[in-house]
TrEMBL record:
Topology class, membrane: Peripheral membrane protein
Keywords from the UniProt entry: ATP-binding, Cell membrane, Hydrolase, Membrane, Nucleotide-binding, Translocase, Transport
GO cellular component terms attached to this protein's record: ATP-binding cassette (ABC) transporter complex
Principal subcellular localization: membrane
Location within or outside the cell: Cell membrane
Protein's recorded name: Phosphonate-transporting ATPase
Species annotation: Desulfotomaculum nigrificans (strain DSM 14880 / VKM B-2319 / CO-1-SRB) (Desulfotomaculum carboxydivorans)
EC main group: hydrolase
């Protein structure tokens, strides 16, 4: 396995209407790292994740996942290496039962049914929703849908977990459960989010985007306490680092 598991080299992307969403992005993510991608609305986070997973292809520059260059021809290889969880789990769950959604990926890769069943049950147990296997995904709560979407990724046994806003629409308990779950995974994790408290807790490294460019890339605890930088990028310090309005204490 490559030591540099994800490599963006001077990547540019413009949408068909001409909007330049990614403007020369370069970074390397190493095996086992947990990286938060942050930035204000429209900074380019989702576009970057779609480029990484081959949903979009760069106009210029190169993206490697392990040794593999991301191109139209290598998409099936890339998708075996990367598990991508969309911002809205409804975009990912489309079968009639949770079981079938989690089985979809492995079945699609021609894995035999006994092995599919093993993988599905292991993935459902990992995220704590084995009891929901026969339920229709659209009848699940937001937190349960998020868990099912993550199980659907885990059943593919990916090297890298890529997540777009995983804590959106989760109540505090479901958010806490998800963070604990993700903390327990040894996968390389790349998470685009506005939840800077989660980044502080889960990701040792943060990449800050602004206007399709990397403005800062470094240790989360340093970046997320740099008020000047955060303000320049339309962000605020994580809530856990802001003073308590009742007692006035600061961490
Ligand atoms: N399909 C599209 N066509 C044209 N422009 C787009 C399209 N999708 C996104 N954009 C634009 O590209 C830029 C980057 O968008 P992107 O969704 O990557 O930002 P983001 O950082 O994920 O934002 P958010 O935090 O709001 O989800 C924005 O200016 C956005 O308006």
């Amino acid at each position: 396995m490559s030591h540099h598991i994800v490599d963006f080299n001077n990547v540019f992307y413009a949408y068909p209407d001409g909007k330049q969403a990614v403007n020369g992005i370069t970074f390397r993510i190493h095996h086992g790292e947990s990286v938060g991608i942050v930035g204000a609305n429209g900074a380019g986070k989702s576009t970057l994740l779609m480029l990484l997973t081959g949903i979009l292809l760069p106009a210029r520059g190169e993206i490697h996942v392990g040794e593999t260059l991301v191109t139209k021809k290598t998409l099936s290889v890339i998708r075996q290496k990367i598990g991508f969880s969309f911002q809205d789990p409804d975009d990912q769950l489309f079968m009639t039962t949770v079981y079938d959604d989690v089985a979809f990926g492995p079945r699609n890769y021609g894995i035999d049914e006994p092995e599919v069943e093993k993988r599905v049950m292991k993935a459902l147990e990992t995220v704590g929703i084995a009891h929901l296997k026969d339920r229709a995904p659209y009848k699940l709560s937001g937190g349960e849908k998020r868990a099912a979407a993550i199980a659907a990724i885990l059943s593919m046994d990916p090297d890298i977990l890529v997540m777009d806003e995983p804590t959106t629409a989760l109540d505090p308990r479901a958010r806490r459960r998800l963070i604990s779950l993700l903390k327990g995974f040894s996968h390389t994790k790349i998470i685009a989010t506005h939840d800077l408290d989660m980044v502080l807790e889960l990701c040792e490294r943060t990449i800050v985007l602004n206007d399709g460019r990397v403005v800062c890339d470094g240790t989360s605890s340093k970046i997320l306490t740099n008020e000047e930088l955060l303000e320049q990028c339309g962000l605020e310090k994580p809530l856990t680092l802001q003073g308590c309005p009742l007692c006035g204490s600061k961490k």
